């Protein structure tokens, strides 16, 4: 399969949740609060000033405040339309939501064993991959020969990148983790098996 468009992925900048070392994955808290920290705004400004990729024609963002803040800065810089889509929301971390971010490795350990696990009520790798890929399929139907920037969250984007590269989803943490405010291109490998 080949894509009609070029896809870039941008992880949101350092957020108030990162600053507080909290897992904020429920839409109720994530959409209303925990936007970018001052450090995150500086990170995003630096990324945009030194943009290493083609300029996006349009931006699609997670509705979570930290991603939206990041996407709004990018849209202002590139003067392009911005839409939100829940498919790009943070991976839901179940019972760990609102707790300390030092619990992420517990989830990633389970990810390595089973892409369908729901340890502590966490959204499975396959669920995140399916919703992310469904969005790309929709964008493929709506647009052609565009550069589309997807602004989202660490796990959501790591899982999408692993899917596009044809890696087993449980190995998503073997990819170099996206830093806050880091942009990469998402391209399909020939061996990718898509949902």
UniProtKB/TrEMBL annotation:
Gene3D superfamilies: Phosphoglycerate mutase-like. SUPFAM superfamilies: Phosphoglycerate mutase-like. InterPro entries: His_Pase_superF_clade-1, His_PPase_superfam. This is Histidine phosphatase family protein. It comes from Zobellella denitrificans.
């Amino acid at each position: 399969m080949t894509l009609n468009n070029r896809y870039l992925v941008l992880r949101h900048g350092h957020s108030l949740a990162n600053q507080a070392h909290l897992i904020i994955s429920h839409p109720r808290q994530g959409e209303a609060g925990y936007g970018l920290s001052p450090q995150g705004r500086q990170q995003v400004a630096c990324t945009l000033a030194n943009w290493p990729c083609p300029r996006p024609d349009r931006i699609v963002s997670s509705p979570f405040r930290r991603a939206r803040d990041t996407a709004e800065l990018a849209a202002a810089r590139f003067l392009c339309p911005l839409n939100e889509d829940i498919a790009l929301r943070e991976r839901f971390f179940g019972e760990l939501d609102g707790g300390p971010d030092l619990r992420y490795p517990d989830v990633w350990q389970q990810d390595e064993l089973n892409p369908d696990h729901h340890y502590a009520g966490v959204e499975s790798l396959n669920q995140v991959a399916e919703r992310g890929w469904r969005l790309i399929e929709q964008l493929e139907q709506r647009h052609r020969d565009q550069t589309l920037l997807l602004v989202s969250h660490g796990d959501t984007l790591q899982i999408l990148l692993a899917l596009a590269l044809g890696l087993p989803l449980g190995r998503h943490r073997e990819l170099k983790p996206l830093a806050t405010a880091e942009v990469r291109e998402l391209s399909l490998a020939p061996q990718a098996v898509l949902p």
